[in-house]
Amino acid sequence: MKIIKIETYVLSNQLAQSFFFSQWAYDERRICVVKIITDEGIYGWGEGYGPADVIKQGIALIEPLLLGKNPIENEALWYEMYRKTLDFARRSVLFAAISAIDIALWDIKGKAFKLPVSVLLGGQHRKKVVPYATGLYFSDSENLAEDLIAEAKDYVSQGFKAIKMKVGLSIKADVEHVKNIRKAIGEDIQLMVDSNHAYSLREALELARKIEPYNISWFEEPVSPEFYDQYAQLRNKTSIPIAGGECEYLRYGFLQLLQNKSVDIAQVEICASGGLTEAKRIGSLASSFGVEVIPHVWGTGIGFHAALHFIANIEPLPGRLYPPDILIEYDRTENAIRDTLTVPAIKMEDGYIEVPQSAGLGIDVDELALKEFSTTL
Ligand code: MG
After folding, report:
1. Model confidence over 101-128: pLDDT tens digits?
2. Cα dist. 214→35, 79, 200, 232 in Å?
3. By CB count within 10 A, which of 53, 89, 101, 173 is most buried?
4. Phi, psi (rounded to 5 degrees) for 89
5. Of these residues, 125, 177, 197, 296, which one is catalytic?
6. What is the chain's mean pLDDT, rounded?
7. Contact, 149 vs 182, CB < 8 A?
8. Residue 31 and residue 300: Cα distance in Å, rounded?
């Protein structure tokens, strides 16, 4: 089998309503997806996380390395892409391009062997995962506090067992929102907070101490991802588990997080940190430190399904007769591309999403949706 063509698409959708988090506002979804086509008619889809137009350029740069090569030898191709870009693109956005390609190659390989990607990765430790709703962003609404309460209640009524909310507005506002939301959703729903590194160590510690009474499952990106030691210091001073890693690239980046004892939960972004090939290595590395891995997921059904298969393959940690469920991030903010690009649609039943048992990633791209959102078609 040979790779004969690579098609890269930048998809765009203007949001009906902008929303923001501690760093910036979103008014558009802009996503880069890639289709790799083989001489046997089998094709695979991949997605990059980050600036879509730059990722597209990155894929164009790497394309000559792939044309004519056998996609089944995907790990050898991963190494070629890594080796030929290491000197100028170490731990950079170019890895989002490599990640997109890597995911597409796993999709091809799965279809070629007629196996789900998670089986090819080594097997499914679980057949279903628990999605957590990512939402509760900020807006300019005068009734933000009430809006957040209503949104949180809506997630509970949809059947979500876990919800992640944004913090990082101000310690005072954050504490108020956390208090309100915990009260609104009751004690049985898991609640996580994410500041997107809005705080200094001193501020993060103050916030952590003030929200400890509200049973928080993790505090994500409390401080800048550069400050590995500050993560470790915070971890030592709060009972709330600390999560981070969505800005890390490759196993070498995660090694910093792990060696510095920075996190309880390592959040690998499969569409940026090196694809499924590298995510599997990062998972092995984290397990040797006894650290949980829960991927960061943001984008279309392509990236979501890559994460589903990755999670299906994560070894239970620790192993026991009834191991805990592993969560998958399910972004619930406005994203028409996510909602329509891939088929079949993502379905949550009884608070779970099933791992697809069909070949490859288990999804296809709807050509009409591709056309609708593509900036070039
Ligand atoms: Mg985050």
Report:
1. 999 999 999 999 999 999 999 999 999 9
2. 45, 45, 22, 22
3. 101
4. -135, 30
5. 296
6. 97
7. no
8. 8
Query: Which of the four pLDDT bands, split at 50, 70 and 90, describes residue 15?
Result: very high
Q: How far is the CA of 112 from the centre of ligand 1 (A)?
A: 35
Q: How far is the CA of 42 from the centre of ligand 1 (A)?
A: 34
What secondary structure does DSSP assign to 235-274, as a single string?
A: HHH-SS-EEE-TT--HHHHHHHHHHTT--SEE---TTTTT
237-252 pLDDT, tens digit per residue, is 999 999 999 999 999 9
Decide: 103 and 49 in contact? Cβ < 8 Å.
no
Reported CATH class of domain 119-361 = alpha beta
Token pair belonging to 335: 């994203």
Residue extent(s) of CATH 3.20.20.120 domains in the chain: 119-361
Ligand 1 midpoint to CA 281 (Å): 21
- Rounded Cα–Cα distance for residues 4 and 43 (Å): 10
Structure tokens at 62: 């790497």
All residues at 6 or more sequence positions from 19 whose CB lies less than 8 Å from its CB, including other chains: 25, 26, 137, 138, 139, 333, 334
| Ranges 196-205, 209-218, 227-236, 313-322: which has the least confidence | 313-322
DSSP class of residue 360?
A: B
Indicate if 177 belongs to the active site: no
CATH superfamily name and code, 3-115+367-373: Enolase-like, N-terminal domain (3.30.390.10)
For 277-294, the pLDDT digits (tens) are 999 999 999 999 999 999
What's the mean pLDDT in 358-363? 98
Mean pLDDT of 19-43: 97
Whole-number pLDDT of residue 89? 86
CA of 371 to the centre of ligand 1 (A): 30
User: What's the confidence (pLDDT) of residue 90?
Assistant: 83
Q: Return d(Cα 128, Cα 276) in angstroms, integer.
A: 19
What spacing in Å lies between the alpha carbon of 92 and ligand 1's midpoint?
18
Q: Where in the chain is the domain with CATH 3.30.390.10?
A: 3-115+367-373
Residue 335: closest CA among 31, 35, 7: 31
